[in-house]
Amino acid sequence: MRAIELKKLSYTYSKKTPFEKRALDNVDLAIEEGEFVGLIGATGSGKSTLIQHLNGLVKVQEGEVVVAGMSASDKKSLKQLRFTVGMVFQYPEYQLFEETVARDVAFGPKNMKLEKDEIDRRVRRALEVVGLPYDEFAERSPFELSGGEKRRAAIAGVIAMEPKILVLDEPVAGLDPVGRREVLALVRKLHEEVSPTVIMVSHYMDDIAEMADRIVALKEGRVVADGSPQEVFGEREKLAQAGLALPSAARIADKLTERGIELPRTIVTPAALADALAEIKAKRAANEPAAQDGEREDGENV
Amino acid sequence: MFKDVAFGQYYPTGSVVHRMDPRMKLLLTIMFVVAIFFVNTYFGFMITAAVLLAIILIARLPMLSVLKSVRAIVFIVLFASLVNLFMIKGGEVLWSWKSLQITDQGVHTTIKMALRLVLLICGASLLTLTTTPVEVADGTESLIKPLKYIKVPVHDIAMIMSIALRFIPTLFEETNKIIAAQKARGASFDTGGLIARAKAMLPVLIPLFVNSFRRADELAFAMDARCYNATENRTKMKVMKLGAADYVGFLLIAAYFVAIMLDRYYFGGVMDSLIFGGLV
Question: Could you give the ipTM of this predicted complex?
């Protein structure tokens, strides 16, 4: 089933002033239910504008946005749309406001006008899923949590609405390596357990390459690449034009190719790189069992 | 929400008015504001409007940007006009109903007051439309420098002013972000009664305050780290200098000032009867 469909979507900020800026330009995009889409693009490429269209935070100017069968221009289904698309903004911890974590997480479900029991169930579940045990965290003030905990509490506030589609804008920005790994593992878990369709905006190509099944790249408000990580990162020239970097695994593969170890351009994750190198090593061992020294050098390069 | 706060927001066109010395622009604005309170004839208002129009044209500002600032005071003007219209007694009675009456003097006073308010706001908004907030702050600092001698912490005041001005856009941006985040969680800010709406603002105001304190703390820390202290003899990156345009501008406004004074005290309404005849 189709989760999201954008048809000829265009958007201009501050129309008819000297600050006028075209943020989206004729974007056509269809996302199927169950997909994990990585949205990439340089700063100012229109990513934020695009995702804010998905739950009606930005009014559609030109074109059409259909999410789970609802049109984003339809005012009547606006609330329903916002409960269907969970939006985790950049630095979501800045939206925490309640006295206790549990009450903050309950804000969304309360706005959905759910029964009290159902709200409690959802708050409990959301906190457990993000890894903040209910009994330990529910009654604490969100302002006294650590940075990573705050972020997870804020994410819990979004997933307590149990949205079918989850949109995350730079979910790991500003976190330390441990917090980053935890939040990424959480996103993967959410994809499997809570929201089947996930759209993640990120500057970290490594994360995108690892997690997404499909990558959409934007440049100046247009879609410049759309496909599997292997396809999108395979087109090095296009990517460089869009001002985007490669995942580290692909960069290492390129360097190795330069130095004479031919590797395919479809390598985008560390695991794929390791596999390819192991294969080369096995092949060489089979072909020339005598040349053991050269083999060791290759190994050191890795 | 907050889209209309663009009241008198800087509008860059790079015109000669934009490039004028902010100190001169501030002075001229003050002169203009003083002068407009001396205007008491329709002829005077015509001169005022002509001067404003000339500045708008030279500054290459779209009329709409100036009128936008007027929109902010429309209600005040309407309210004051209504009160004036019925309260001022004197001259011929034009219309009456029970204890309410409108007199011809009331009509004239009301029209003049409305014109004065609208032109005043137009004039004042020309300053902010052509001058960046930082320039306004720098200009103000320079102008109030003499107060130093009576122990007024001029530099501190100016620094506080520039920081406040600097963070207005940041706060707006942040407010909009938080509003978006809470809306995404199903909050609504435009339904329900007054109390419900005030309550709905809490999820926005609390994070805004928390973040502002955090940011103020960080800023103070960063300033300390760069050894900031409000000592004397700090130099400016941009040195303000008076140029030819400033003198011409001064002459223009000074001429306007003299014209208004002459119209009020010397001609005393002669021009009005010449132009409008029996109407006035």
Answer: 0.85
